[in-house]
Amino acid sequence: MSRSSSPRARLAVAAAAIALAAGLAGYGLARLQPGRAPTPAAKEQSRVLYWYDPMVPAQHFDKPGKSPFMDMQLVPKYAGEGGAAAPGVVIDPAKLQNLGVRYATAEGGQLDSSLTATGVLEFNERDIAIVQAKASGFVQRVYGRAPGDVVGAGAPLADVLVPEWAGAQAEFLAVRRSGDTALASAARQRLILLGMPPAAVAEVERSGRPRSVLTIATPSGGVIKTLNVRSGMTVSAGQTLAEVNGVGSVWLNAAVPEALAGQVRPGQPVVATLAAYPTETFNGRVAAILPQANSETRTLTMRVELANPVGRLRPGMFASVRFDAAPQPALLVPSEAVIRTGRRTLVMLALPGGRYQPAEVRTGREAGGRTEILQGLTNGERVVASGQFLLDSEASLSGIEARPLMAPVAAPPTVSAPMKAAPAPALYESVGRIEQLTPQSVTLSHQPVPALQWPAMTMQFRLADPRLAQRLKPGDRVRFGFEQAEAGPTVRRMTREGGQ
């Protein structure tokens, strides 16, 4: 019997024939049945909105073809990919989790306006005395002074012999002995016009003897910056012999970047720390903002005047300067959420429905990891604080336009509460000695003020009421209370120590 006629072979052939027949029948039925229409959702998702070049996604085309920018075909943009009905780009939630996206909310707060800079101590150029010869003569004696010496007021520098005075003094004494009052007065006036100090004229008048040697002294105390007088030299009238710079106060010139210079204003309180005295702080105020910027460092110089009653602050010392200012309300976002492209500044908005859109903003101050938003956001909007660069790149590739700048926003109040009366300013107490006194101000050498971290110093205070100066005089020891007002430390009460 052959293999083809075996029962097993016949069964296999029959099964194959049945399967073939079933397949042909199904194919025929499929060809004969009418095709199913796609759903409206499928039609919408498959609809092409436009064609674009992935390298220039902002440019749209209404038909396919070759890109005019690159050697590549245009890519279709389908409705189901977003960008038509709602703004923004949709990102797969799984990808967002891998990117570690974090969110933040634009909200009102107070931005710390403190600014720190470095500075150098310099001489107070307003406290300079020029010593000049009032008459021509010869230097007979010098007193061993040298530049850099610290001298007090009235310190002698040199003795100068003035021959021109000898004849004028002899004439003055002769006329005075004659009893002619008018001629004596004219001769006396001539001595003064020749440069003889009134005190020296009075000495000649009292002693009746000529005095031709003039002792040149410093009019005020300080440091001798220049000294141009030597023994035996000839001096002429008006010649500068010395220059003395006072040290009762010094200038602290602080360099502030020009981008932050707008935060500093004249009269603003300043706290300085010096490396020489790390445990102490020195308080002052901005005396002036110099008009010219440094073209190399792009900084402006803020001049601060510091009291130096005991001469410990020496020109040339370096200092760290903190400019204090009251915190101001502002609309804030984390600084890491801000994208600066060089041409504009953006943040990535987190929109409802899992969509993201870049928004153009205008920023202001920055401190403590937070940035002030002046324009472009409203209070309560959510922004992406981490991973925003990748989202911005995806939005650019998808042709999503950034939301343009909105109207400037007003900083929201930080606390919603009924209006309350402003609290009374704090009053600080101390004891000191009156150095100078006017109806408007008082200069006090006072003890330390621990509440303000002030060391003992001599400084000027404003008087809140001129009547506080009544029955007081320089040299009195007083107990006083003052406040840190906008115009400077202001004394509110002051009484002589021991009471009166």
Structural features, described:
With 500 residues, the chain is an alpha+beta fold. It folds into six domains: 3-32; 41-81, no CATH class; 89-110 and 328-397, Beta Barrel (conserved putative lor/sdh protein from methanococcus maripaludis s2 fold); 132-236, Beta Barrel (OB fold (Dihydrolipoamide Acetyltransferase, E2P)), CATH 2.40.50; 247-316, Elongation Factor Tu (Ef-tu), domain 3 (Beta Barrel), CATH 2.40.30; 428-496, Beta Barrel (OB fold (Dihydrolipoamide Acetyltransferase, E2P)), CATH 2.40.50. It contains seven helices and 31 strands. It has helices at 7-32, 40-46, 93-99, 163-178, 181-193, 198-207, 388-397; strands at residues 48-53, 56-61, 75-78, 89-90, 102-105, 107-111, 115-123, 128-132, 137-142, 150-151, 156-161, 213-217, 222-227, 234-235, 240-245, 249-257, 269-274, 277-289, 299-307, 318-323, 328-334, 339-340, 345-351, 355-367, 370-375, 382-386, 428-437, 441-446, 457-463, 477-485, 488-496. Strands 4, 6, 21, 22, 23, 24 and 25 form a seven-stranded antiparallel sheet that branches. Strands 7-16-19-18-17-20 form a six-stranded antiparallel beta barrel. A five-stranded mixed barrel has the order 27-28-29-31-30. Strand 23 (345-351) and strand 24 form a beta hairpin. The chain is elongated. Residues 1-9, 11-37, 40-45 and 409-422 have low confidence and may be disordered.
